[in-house]
Amino acid sequence: MASNSARQKVPNPMLCDSDRFAFIPRRIHGFSSTGNAYDATQTDEKIDSGDTLLILPEGVVGVAHCWPFAVTQEAGKLHAVKPMAHETLSDFASAFNVTADDIEAALDLARALGFAIDPALAALDAPAV
Predict the structure, then answer these.
(1) Could you point out which of 20, 46, 47, 108 has its C-alpha 20 to 30 Å from the C-alpha of 98?
(2) What's the rounded Cα separation, in Å, for the pair 122 and 97?
(3) What is the CB neighbour count within 10 angstroms for residue 99?
């Protein structure tokens, strides 16, 4: 049996691997109405384009932008979107100067809450067959 000193020391990846902290934080801003959410995207400097908007009382999830839009079927005072038939999710996102990840994060939250997804966005988010 080999002695402990003969073993090659392997660094513990949890203690020295800086990638364990490599993640993208998502900001979710909660509001009591879609009207309040819309107004806040226009006036609150703490809300960045691409942040997620959550309006539980109305069953709406959206993406912050100077033209905030809903990813849920119910849009309330947020804008409903109509992507072009040939657009991918990345194409659509770049038109709003947000990332596909921003939209996917909002879609994931809406699905987790059981909210109906806007069919136009659901078609963009569907994996290619």
Answers:
(1) 20
(2) 19
(3) 17
